[in-house]
Amino acid sequence: MDIFKSVTPPKKRTAENSELTCVLGWVTEILQRYTLVNDDIMDKSDHTTLGKLAGIFKAGVGLTAINDAIMNRVRYVPIIDHFSRARWKDLI
Fold this sequence. Notes:
mainly alpha
């Protein structure tokens, strides 16, 4: 939110735009998680993600992590649709 406040003109710092900024952050995190899980599955030679042991290499996880990737992939589109794509232009 600090970045939102520093780059957004005061007249656009509404409660609705603040909420949309948070939602955009959540969607970005979900999409990033989706890509990281897929990368972990495809890149078997590197057992780390962001310097830590990748989740798929932890005991009992393995390729069941693909379920997490799929769930993350299908989550972000309904979130964007719920908040109406037409409203996103108000942030810019």
